[in-house]
Amino acid sequence: MRSTRLLPLLFALIPAACGDDIKFPDQVEVNPALNGVFPAKGFTDRTLRVEISGDATEFTGTPTVSFGADITVVSVELSSPGTLFANISIAGAAAVGKRDVVVTNGADPLTLTAAFDVQNPLEVVLDGPVLQGGLNQVLIINHDPENPFLGTLEVTGGTGVEVFLDEQSQTESIAIGTMFVDTDAASGPLVVNDILLDTTVSRGPAITVTPRAPTALTAPGKGPAFQVLGATLTNTTALFSFAGTPALWRGTTSIASLETPLNLIWLPGGKWANARGFATDDLLAIPAATTMNVVVFDGFAIGSVFDLDVDNFHDLTGFVALAEVEDNDEFDNGNGQVVPDTQDVTLFSGLLNSDDTGFDDLVYNLEDGDQLHVTTAGADTVVFIFDDGFFPVDGNGFETNSFCCGNLVGLAANDDINEGAFLFASDTTSVQLPAGTYFVEVSASFFALDDPYDMAITVIHNPAL
Question: Would you say 307 and 279 are in contact if contact means Cβ atoms under 8 Å apart?
Fold first, then answer.
């Protein structure tokens, strides 16, 4: 057959070969390199043990390891020529983002690019821009389950930024509160501290504070002493200022589009720690000439147009600053402070200490038609006003400034504050009273303990009924 005849020819064409002539590819040399970092992320303000592995590495001794700025390598442990462990400490100020990991063990360093991610353990959600002289609702989310939100927490931002938490809403991973921003506040990181353990729980991202100059209130020529008409609430708060002379000042807001006017807050010295009011119509005693800041607030009325009036309600023609008396926890112990009726207006203003969870009481001799105006702020306090028969005064009595329970108790229930917001003053003005002796007593709750509080008492002198 034809195919059979071709076979000898094919074999003749194939050259003879021996085993020594068979060729294999040259072996490729593998260069040492890092191939993994575990875990590949870490939170600021934390210590961490990190495993670093490599290919074709010959780690010996104690290699040098670097994670970049603000990450301290505390120690390095060699597990094998291809594996080592680094114990690291990530500073609170460490910049977040991907980091190169560099291992040096000999002449040439080995680098694994963008291998380690620095993250904030906290995520901060705000309801708007953080403005000087403003306030924000804040949600703090904890992404670090190994450091849960437990116990009593304290939250601060940069200078002049403080957060008051709603403890009833706090969980291990979430904290909700209100952020108060002074008029001179500065940007800075949000820090969560454990008050009882005196330790930092977590450090979050920087809170950027936007500078804001207050709008100066101008005199309209007649009517209110100062006034702004047709202002627009572009954010949750609007900030104003006026030149306050010694007087009892009254501020009022009005708005056509809402049944309830916007809240007015006095901000002496531009500090929320001194805040008074949180009312739509409120009085504030200014004992000396000063520039007063006024905040108009409503988180639900952004875009609304409003008016603001500030009046000299009553001149302060006399001023007496009284010191606290201890032990003053009884009406009849002789330590109550008597204010004479020779002053047209007498103002008490000072920082008091509820050191024995007892009482601070003042005795006033009033003329016919006088009124008492009382504010407290700072601690969990209850204000009592009694006549000389120890009966609650009509229109006052049992006014509470409490962050504990959020409920008014007693007779009048006429606080003009937002209950539960204990930073703000318990603020009440009595009806015109008959001539006689009256007692103003402040009781601090057990929960306040040694917390100081601020109290101001004004006598509004109206000689004729």
Answer: no
